[in-house]
C-alpha cells in the first residue's frame, strides 16, 4: 500500500527548464489531451523528452477538441522519440475504436486499439477513470483482461469511466448519481499504489491531490490547462508542468466526458 499523501501537500510547481543532457530517466504522465494538438506540442516542447524517458498518457487523446487524428499521429511518432510510450485506454479510445468514429488508417487504429486498461509502475498505477472499490486483483499485464468473459471484465471496464461511488463504495453510473455519492478517489485506499488518473476534469492550477490518487486532467479542452506530472522512483509527484489552452474548444461537461 502506498504512503498516504499528506492532506496539505501540493506537488512542487514546474521548474523553469526541464531539459538537459545529463538528467536521469524520467517518468512523465500526461492528462487528457482530447484533440488539443497545439497544447500537446507546447507541452512536449517544455518537457524536451529524450530516448531515456517513459511517457504514459492517461487516455482520452481524442474527441471533443479540434485535432483528434493529428494528436493520434503525434503520439504515435513519440514511440521513436522516447524509451517507453504507454497509452492507457480512455472511454473515448474505447468508443472511437468500437464505432470507428475517426478518420484513421488501419495502422493508426491498431495503435488506439492496443491501449491498455492500466499501467503499473513502482509505487503507482495509471488508470483513465480510476480504481473501483471492489477491484482487488490487478495483474502486471493488463492484456489479461482480454481473456475474461464480459461479466467478469465489467469491473475493469469501470476503470475507464468511474466517477462516483455509493456509500458502500459501489460504482454508480453517471446517470444514476445521487447527492450522497462520493468521488471514487476520496475512498480509494492506495491498494495498488498512488493512482494517477484522468477523465474527471479539475479546474485548479495544479494536479488534484487525493489521499492516494492524483487527478491529471486540468480541463484543457474546456479552455483550462493540459498537465504533465513527473513521477519519482517511489511513485510520488516530483514536479508538474501545465500549459494554458489557447481557447475553449468544448462548451461543457457532457454525459461521456
Ligand atoms: Mn474520459
Key descriptive features of the protein:
single chain; 257 residues; alpha/beta; Purple Acid Phosphatase, chain A, domain 2; five-stranded mixed sheet; 13 strands; globular
What is this structure's SSE topology?
Elements: E1 27-30, H1 37-47, E2 54-57, H2 68-77, E3 84-87, H3 91-99, H4 106-113, E4 119-121, E5 124-127, H5 154-157, E6 164-165, E7 171-172, E8 182-183, E9 194-197, E10 208-210, E11 213-215, E12 225-231, E13 237-244
Parallel strand pairs: 1-2, 2-3, 5-9, 9-11
Antiparallel strand pairs: 1-12, 4-5, 6-7, 6-8, 10-11, 12-13
The site of manganese (II) ion has 7 residues, from α3.
Can you offer a commentary on this structure?
With 257 residues, the chain is an alpha/beta fold. It has a domain at 27-128 and 189-244: Purple Acid Phosphatase, chain A, domain 2 (4-Layer Sandwich). 16% of the residues lie in helices and 19% in strands. It is built from 5 helices and 13 strands. The strands form 3 sheets. The protein has a 5-stranded mixed β-sheet, covered by helices on one side. A hairpin with a 2-residue loop joins strand 4 (119-121) and strand 5. The protein is globular and about 45 Å long. The protein starts with 26 loop residues before the first strand and ends in a 13-residue tail after the last strand. The model has no long low-confidence stretch (mean pLDDT 91). Residues 60, 90-92, 128, 199, 257 line the site of manganese (II) ion (MN).
Provide the CATH top-level class of the domain at 27-128 and 189-244.
Alpha Beta
Q: What's the SSE pattern?
A: EHEHEHHEEHEEEEEEEE
Tally of individual helices: 5
Beta content: 15-25%
What value does the Rg take, in angstroms?
17 Å
What is the SS-derived class?
alpha/beta
Bound molecules: manganese (II) ion
Helical coverage, percent range: 10-25%
Low-confidence stretches: none
